């Protein structure tokens, strides 16, 4: 499925701008120039996905076609991990069903043809969720450290992965009563150890600590301007022209330009503070595809998202959300811990509300939606089977004879 999409659909669409940058950074790494752009050090994106591409390139598997295959392999790994996650949450039947849904689930399939970091981000996120359940099953500093380390890897792939630390890992570590403080320290410490090479490198290059990404200012300004606050059809969305027209675009220095754009975005938001709650709500609605889908479809074609498949994705996603709600209720009744499955939904909604609404920013929650919807489907199937197994109502012999003779009293 992923190879078919990558070579028959996504290959005819424009390669996203971020994909060009990831491939450029990978080429610079292979050439020995370090993590740089146009000869200058950069922190525009976290480094792990470019390192992944560079590793394969170094082995002789470079080029767009080979990279699409690599992303398809990552997507297949995600399917297997989602199956394991479903098995841990609700049993073997749900595990198999979750893997089957994940193999065909459009939001997951569409990612792997776009050559963007979500292909690597997804298996790392699902791995973190599996380790979260392990921390529940085997509480202690070791399990907490493993979870923190994988969240560090998530953050090195997409900077918003750091939100999994306060929304998932630390609350679970806090529940470890026997070794609470050691578990908290192990979790946070492991994440810091994994992140430290990137943070120290940026400290040396840019004389600032901590720096995860320098792209924050550009995104903030493109999402906080008149068009995204008041223009019909674009409320809660993104308009790159807002950033391109800013005087900050001419500021020298990557971080200095980012700071300038961030300050300009904050100033605009403060001047229109009464509008901010509505804009944030619209952003979340766009991310979950319950609002403003027209602009999303147009913009998605720039991210190798075929318009027809994107329409199908919206329908499938809404149906999956309905079953996911039923699945969450069922797991709650069975007393299955829901935090590992619900925390990614909170991360996705928060990221969209703080940036702008686009289904790409929801990808961290899609594995949880798949597992919960598989649980809901399994519960519905079990209920239907029980109804079929119930004996049919049979009337006594005398009643049958009376009805057969047509003699019924009113």
Q: What is the string of SSEs from the N terminus onward?
A: HHEEHHHHHHHHHHHHHHHHHH
Unreliable spans: none
State the strand order across the main sheet.
Answer: 1-2
Over all CA atoms, what is the radius of gyration? 25 Å
Q: Main β-sheet, in a few words?
A: 2 strands, antiparallel
What class would the helix/strand composition place it in?
A: mainly alpha
Mean pLDDT across residues: 90
Percentage beta strand: under 5%
Q: How many individual β-strands?
A: 2
Termini separation comes to 63 Å
Coarse morphology: globular
The helix content, as a percent range, equals 55-70%
Note the total helix count: 20
Structural topology:
Blueprint: H1 2-8, H2 17-30, E1 36-37, E2 40-41, H3 48-58, H4 64-90, H5 92-104, H6 106-111, H7 118-137, H8 141-157, H9 164-174, H10 180-206, H11 216-223, H12 226-230, H13 240-244, H14 254-271, H15 276-287, H16 293-300, H17 307-333, H18 339-354, H19 366-389, H20 397-404
